[in-house]
């Protein structure tokens, strides 16, 4: 990074600033001003994505529940019900592993 800074200074006669992690600057056409404000990464969108994903999963589980209850009202063989139980146990296992 220092080499790049020196090259810019040599070629264009422009003083360069290599900020440290968390430093903040205000840049305009005339000058650069260092601020005391520390830059914090914006995680609000990531949190929103988590909430949206949880809502999506909840809707899918509700839909699955409705479909399975409707299917159970029809005649099902013991084998079909056993297969369904295995699938539900796998879903439960995946949820529990995600919570760890």
Automatic annotation (TrEMBL):
This is Metallo-beta-lactamase family protein. The lineage of its organism: Bacteria, Bacillati, Bacillota, Clostridia, Eubacteriales. It comes from Acetivibrio straminisolvens JCM 21531.
């Amino acid at each position: 990074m220092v080499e790049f800074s020196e090259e810019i200074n040599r070629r264009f006669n422009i003083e360069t600033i290599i900020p440290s992690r968390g430093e903040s600057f205000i840049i305009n056409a005339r000058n650069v001003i260092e601020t005391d404000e520390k830059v914090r990464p914006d995680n609000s969108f990531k949190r929103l994505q988590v909430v949206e994903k949880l809502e999506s999963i909840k809707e899918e589980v509700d839909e699955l529940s409705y479909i399975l209850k409707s299917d159970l009202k029809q005649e099902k063989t013991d084998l079909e019900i056993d297969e369904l139980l295995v699938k539900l146990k796998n879903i439960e296992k995946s949820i529990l592993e995600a919570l760890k």
